[in-house]
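Many introductory courses stop at the sequence. We go one step further.
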Amino acid sequence: MDHSIFPGKNKIPMDEDLKITLGKTYESWQDIKNFVAAEYPGTIAEWNYPGEKYGWSFRIKDKKRAVLLLLPRDGYFKVAMVFGQKATDIILNSGISEGIKEELRSARVYAEGRGIRIEINNDSFLKDIYELIKIKQKN
């Protein structure tokens, strides 16, 4: 099972913890947070603890829904997003990388949409992440 690197409920991860844990991917984490804050000033960013099974995650949401979750791991992180059918159709017909499209195609469909997790080991997916955020927020 894929778990947060920060499992303990009593200690909210701090910026220094993230720098140490994420290593070279810390900058990409910050870039994504800053992008969402600049593009969508009304969003709220907060640490979230859904339970011991999952550990801490960082959620960015607007008034209606979660925009994305940042899931800290050891030396990297994941970006988790859920897309409705309209956004899914737009993504599948966009210039987003084929790997992300394939993950979206194969994702299980729930009432709220299809959820995907993109592993971030370097900054190569940042352009796609920014595009996914824009599509999600418009649809």
